[in-house]
Structure formats: C-alpha cells, structure tokens
Amino acid sequence: MAKIVDSFLSGVIGPVVAYQSGNKQIIRSCPQRSNQSPSEKQIFQRQKIKLSNRLLKPFHSILRYAFAVKGATRCSINRARSLVLRNMVQDDYNKVVIQYENIRMSLDGDCLCRIKSVCLEENRLELFFNTNPTVPSHITLTVLMYSNGVGSYLSSIIYQEDGHYSIALTLDVQKQYVEKKQDIHFWFLFYDPLKQHYYGSIYHVEKSSR
Q1: Looking at residue 94, what DSSP letter applies?
Q2: In the chain, how long is the greatest CA-to-CA distance?
Q3: What is the DSSP-derived secondary structure letter of residue 154?
Q4: CATH class for the region spanning 109-206
Q5: Helices and strands, number each (H, E), in the chain
Q6: Residue pair 129/116 in contact by the 8 Å Cβ criterion
Q7: Cα 135 from Cα 198, distance rounded (Å)
Q8: Which domain of life is it from (predicted)?
Q9: Cβ atoms within 10 Å of 203's Cβ, excluding its own
Q10: For residue range 119-178, what is the model confidence (pLDDT) as tens digits?
Q11: By the 8 A CB rule, do 141 and 190 touch?
C-alpha cells in the first residue's frame, strides 16, 4: 500500500515500488527474490550493514540530533550509518572489521575539547579535558559506550574551571562490559547550549585485560 509523504509517493503499488531519493520521486519494479547464491561482494556488504546497524542501534535517540541537518530530507541515522560503512574493512580471514578509531558520532568534526586523561575503575569513569577560550562556561557531555554488541550512553552538564573540564560519572553497565572481557569503545560528544549544536566526538578505547 502506498501513501503520500511530504508530497512524495511512498510504498508498493502492484508490481512497482515508489520512494523518495533526495528531491526526486523514484518508481521502479519491485525487487524479486533470487535463487542464485550471493556473490562475495554481496556477502561483504550485507555483513557491513548488519554490523553498522548493531553499532548504531543503542544510540539512535542521540544520533538523530547529532547528525541532523536543517531542511534536509535524508534521515540523520542514514548519515551516521554511511560514516560507519566507510570505515569498515575486510581482514585476512574475510571477516568484516570496524575501524572504531575513525568513526565520529556527530556530523561536525570540529571538537570543543581535547582529551587529557581517562581513568576507568570498576564502574567509575573520570575524565579530564583541555579547552580553548571560545568554549562556553558549561556544555553538555554525552558519553557513548559500546562493547561486543552492547551499547548505552549518558549525558551530564559539565562546567569549565581554569580552562579545563573535569567530570566523574558512574556507569551502571560497566559490570556487563568487564565480565565479557571485551574492549570498551567510548565516544565523548559535546553539545554547545548557546549555539544549540553538537560538535565532533573524541574517541577512546579501554583495552580488555583478558
């Protein structure tokens, strides 16, 4: 069944499907199920999409804002997914590997702060950042955590003192990560309340002691 969405036809009508691509209306034949085995490239692409969805799913509610573009028709989550897909490679065993260190969790690559130290003990995370004079006296820090398919995030307002930000957070999910003995990937995302804008995230990884 098709419907009108923002002046564009969307959905299936008999043997054809209609959808929007940018500012264009696309109508084409419905895809048919194939009995042929997928090629190596198709298998690789499917693995990439599966892994990207697994990584981004816990963060959808925050990424909708961090990748938002005013007046754009493209979904902000698709922008985030596109960035993740560009940072996937195939290792020597034909396994898809995410290059976490190259992934941003916001559309804007400029960052308000530079990370100085990260201390993770049990379920307590202590952070210390250097700032620059143009940064407002307080910003919102969002910490995104991901490990082996499990992800979560939390936000907190932090205040600048003598050109530095420091904060200590209690992570309720830290026990789950530690028990699995997997690397923990962090992104520190900054929101400027004056400009109402998310700025580039800083990446950090805690290596497992396994």
Answers
A1: S
A2: 66
A3: E
A4: mainly beta
A5: 4, 13
A6: yes
A7: 13
A8: Bacteria
A9: 17
A10: 877 667 788 887 766 667 778 888 888 888 888 888 888 877 776 777 777 665 555 555
A11: yes
Beta bridge partners of 162: none
Q: What would the pLDDT profile of 40-61 be if each residue is shown by its tens digit?
A: 888 888 888 999 999 999 999 9
Amino acid at 127: L
Q: Under a CB-based contact definition with an 8 Å cutoff, are residues 154 and 140 in contact? A: no
Residues in contact with 79: Cβ distance below 8 Å, sequence separation at least 6, in sequence order: 67, 69, 107
Does residue 111 contact residue 105 with C-beta atoms inside 8 Å? no
Query: What are the structural domain ranges in the chain?
Result: 1-31, 109-206
**CA nearest 67: which of 204, 195, 199?**
199
Nearest Cα neighbor of 156 from 111, 129, 208, 191 is 191
AA identity, residue 24 = K
Structure tokens at 61: 């509610």
Q: Which residue has the tokens 């696309």?
A: 26
